[in-house]
Specification:
alpha/beta, 4-stranded mixed β-sheet, 46% helix, Rna Polymerase Sigma Factor, Chain: A, Rossmann fold, 16 helices, 3 domains, 7-stranded parallel β-sheet
């Protein structure tokens, strides 16, 4: 039977690669949700002819006259929720940032199988997402390469035998230099040595904050305490994750740095159909080293947010979105991203987690982050 899928975030990096997998496997693409990229969305709609399409109102005005017969167009946040609840076999949740929370929640409440690429769903609302899944009968399969690796390595294992989870990080473009990160440019930060990703996650990889988010995501996905989740630098990006067992053994998932493979695994729910790719050559050197927390303090700050709990992860996540955008706009030096994260995290209140609390925390943290970015920019300006 042909698998039916919907994609939340179809014009982003994960969304476009999910559509490549759909071409491989012949999936029926029932619905697409995107933002403002009208041109690319229209190309996708004309190729896959989904029943339902959602996008930002300004993009809707551009594409509505060119949609195929039988395709319904909806708009904005309400439109993304409609896509999320359409009955399909798998919903690919790939809307980045806090905007992805509501449609991911809706999909789980409607009993959908969610192939989860949106880190924030687990980072800022992990316990609430599991509540939604339990209430509605939904289930989650991770799409991130590292969490897919851990998911695969844990399958069939007794949780009582697990000592630790180990996430690998490439180290980003600055793992070996320059010594002074104060003068690095946006172009340098976006030149990832291994992966092709969107600008925000690529900058997060350069600061190692992306790995910090993945630590929090693993904590909530797999129920493993933060102190039992490790990070190692692995420049080759071939070992994506490892499980350390109490008997001293390690189990690793190895694969090429090609996101289409974990995407297919997640959509298939753990099945392994063949792919049109060359086998991974095993010859070569595989290197592992400890992360430099002094050089990349954002990783430590993510752990600190997780230890604080409550809305602290929402605070640091929102601060990072603001700080990274300021850096991409040329308004904030690269090292100041971590400084902004620390200053905002220090102001996070001790507040119980809830959907309204997350919304309020996101707005409050953004206001704080904007002020801190402006302060850091003034201090960095030539005198």
């Amino acid at each position: 039977m042909t698998k039916r899928i919907s994609i939340l975030g179809s014009t982003g990096s994960i969304g476009t690669q999910a559509l490549e997998v759909a071409r491989w496997r012949g999936y029926r693409v029932e619905a697409l949700a995107a933002g403002r990229n009208a041109r690319l969305l229209l190309e996708q709609v004309q190729e896959f002819r989904p029943r339902l399409v959602s996008c930002a109102p300004e993009a809707a005005r551009e594409i509505e006259a060119q949609l195929p017969a039988g395709t319904k167009l909806v708009e904005g946040a309400a439109g993304a929720l409609e896509v999320a609840q359409l009955d399909v076999d798998t919903v690919v949740a790939a809307i980045p940032g806090i905007a992805g929370l509501a449609p991911t929640r809706r999909a789980l409440e409607c009993g959908q199988h969610v192939a989860l690429a949106n880190k924030e769903a687990m980072v800022v609302a992990g316990p609430l997402m599991w509540e939604a899944a339990r209430a509605g009968g939904g289930r989650i399969t991770p799409l991130d390469s590292e969490h897919s690796a851990l998911y695969q390595a844990l399958r069939g294992e007794d949780p009582e035998g697990v000592e630790a989870l180990v996430l690998t990080a490439s180290g980003g473009p600055f793992r070996d230099g320059p010594a002074d990160l104060g003068s690095v440019t946006v172009e340098q930060a976006l030149a990832h040595p291994n992966w092709s990703m969107g600008p925000k996650v690529t900058v997060d990889s350069a600061t190692l904050f992306n790995k910090g988010l993945e630590v929090l995501e693993a904590h909530f996905l797999f129920g493993v305490p933060l102190e039992r989740i490790e990070v190692v630098i692995h420049p080759q990006s071939l070992v994506h994750g490892l499980v350390r067992f109490r008997d001293g053994m390690l189990k690793a998932q190895v694969g090429p740095h090609d996101m289409r493979l974990p995407i297919q695994y997640g959509i298939e729910g753990g099945d392994r159909p063949p792919v049109p790719l060359e086998p991974l050559p095993l010859a070569g050197t595989w290197e592992f080293r400890e992360p430099d927390h002094g050089r990349f303090p954002a990783l430590r700050l993510a752990y600190a947010a997780g230890e604080l709990g409550g809305v602290a992860p929402a605070y640091i996540n929102a601060a990072d979105e603001v700080a990274v955008q300021a850096f991409l706009d040329g308004n904030l030096p690269f090292p100041a991203i971590a400084t902004v994260l620390q200053k905002v995290l220090e102001q996070a209140p001790q507040e119980e987690l809830g959907w309204e609390a997350i919304e309020e925390a996101n707005l409050a943290a953004r206001r704080l982050a904007v002020r801190e970015c402006e302060r850091e920019a003034r201090e960095a300006a030539p005198r």
